[in-house]
């Protein structure tokens, strides 16, 4: 092209001997174009080095083929595993992704959502958000929305969540079968899924007749596990088992106990939650509750795709089943004397 200017749609039309409108139809994959004309247009475009303007095409169709993803903690492998499922499914369906981080703060979550809306994403996925239910429902009225980790009762929001109570029961039943009764739960605070895990722990302690529930405050971070373990080390006697609210908390607990000379599982058994990539690393080998994270990410994309294709208008809630994965951090309690 003269002056090395990029080729335009008009240039392709002239070279192919067709109208600009027909070139536009070709690059929108319209079935109205005959194979011969399509081939002629594509050959001219290749010869001229023409690249269709994706942004302009999307604006004309009022879509961006972009999905927004809000993740709260980029340091937690749980979110990375879900994102793997999201990315694979989005790529297969022809969507691009706009990734944002909430960093466990309402202000950051609000800003991230505003950014996604400003970029005109076709739909959004909020993974373990801390926003109020009312706020999430309001966002769902602006764009198709899927929430992972919480159930939102709204016709405009789809939800995906593991049965956290069942997961807690599986963890406590495993420890009880090993002979543990003195089992502490390090709480997940206000994190998505923390409340039903806490409720499941309390229910399981009562159902299995394991004594009074023993809750230690925390959140879903490794440092929370460190602080919780430090507080337990101040007690006259340690519990025989600890059920952590997630794998990151469990790692913080085990590091701190190890520094204090407490052996896992010989002195204290530890169970995590999520079955993230760090859980199966050999030096850690954490007993934990598995959530099908990749499948949850894949499911979220397909739920949005259904909404965008108008093949479904009613909201759905998928409750996935967690399972126990037994490794090396749990054993029968040490026998005194």
Briefly summarize what is shown.
The chain is an alpha/beta fold and 337 residues long. 43% of the residues lie in helices and 15% in strands.
Strand content: 15-25%
Low-confidence stretches: none
Q: What's the shape?
A: elongated
How far is the N terminus from the C terminus?
Answer: 90 Å
Summing up helix and strand content along with how strands pair, one would put the structural category as: alpha/beta
Number of strands: 12
Q: Tell me roughly what share of residues is in helical segments.
A: 40-55%
Count of alpha and pi helical runs:
12
Strand order of the largest sheet: 2-1-3-4-5-11
- How would you spell out the order of helices and strands? HHHHEHEHEHEEHEHEHEHEEHEE
Largest sheet: 6 strands, parallel
CA radius of gyration is 26 Å
Mean pLDDT: 88
Question: Which key features would you list for this structure?
Answer:
337 residues, 4-stranded parallel sheet, elongated
Account of the protein in words:
With 337 residues, the chain is α/β, with parallel strands linked by helices. Helices cover 43% and strands 15% of the residues. It contains twelve helices and twelve strands. The strands form three sheets. A six-stranded parallel beta sheet has the order 2-1-3-4-5-11, sandwiched between helices. Strands 7-6-8-9 form a four-stranded parallel beta sheet. Strands 10-12 form a two-stranded antiparallel sheet. The longest helix is centred in the first third of the chain and has 16 residues, at 77-92. It is elongated and about 90 Å long.
């Amino acid at each position: 092209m003269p002056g090395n200017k990029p080729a335009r749609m008009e240039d392709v039309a002239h070279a192919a001997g067709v109208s600009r409108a027909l070139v536009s139809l070709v690059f929108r994959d319209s079935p109205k174009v005959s194979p011969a004309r399509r081939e002629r247009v594509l050959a001219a475009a290749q010869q001229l080095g023409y690249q269709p303007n994706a942004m302009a095409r999307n604006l004309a169709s009022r879509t961006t083929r972009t999905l927004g993803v809000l993740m709260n903690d980029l340091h937690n492998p749980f979110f990375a595993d879900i994102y793997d499922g999201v990315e694979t499914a989005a790529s297969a369906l022809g969507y691009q992704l706009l990734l944002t981080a909430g960093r466990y703060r309402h202000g950051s979550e609000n800003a991230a959502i505003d950014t996604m809306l400003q970029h005109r994403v076709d739909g959004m996925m909020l993974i373990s958000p801390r926003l109020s239910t009312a706020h999430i429902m309001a966002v769902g009225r602006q764009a198709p929305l899927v929430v992972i980790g919480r159930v939102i009762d709204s016709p405009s929001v789809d939800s995906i969540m593991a049965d956290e109570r069942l997961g807690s029961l599986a963890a406590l039943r495993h420890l009880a079968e090993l002979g543990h009764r003195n089992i502490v739960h390090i709480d997940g605070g206000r994190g998505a899924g923390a409340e039903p895990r806490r409720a499941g722990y309390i229910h399981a302690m009562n159902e299995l007749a394991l004594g009074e529930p023993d809750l230690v405050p925390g959140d879903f971070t490794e440092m929370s596990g460190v602080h919780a373990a430090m507080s337990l080390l101040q007690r006259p006697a340690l519990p025989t088992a600890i059920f952590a609210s997630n794998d990151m908390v469990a790692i913080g607990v085990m590091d701190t106990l190890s520094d204090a000379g407490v052996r896992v599982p010989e002195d204290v058994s530890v169970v995590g939650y999520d079955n993230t990539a760090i859980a199966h690393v050999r030096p850690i080998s954490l007993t934990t509750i598995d959530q099908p994270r990749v499948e949850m990410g894949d499911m979220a994309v397909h739920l949005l795709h259904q909404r965008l294709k108008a093949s479904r208008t009613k909201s759905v809630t998928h409750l996935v089943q967690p399972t126990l994965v037994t490794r090396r951090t749990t054993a029968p309690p040490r026998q005194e004397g």
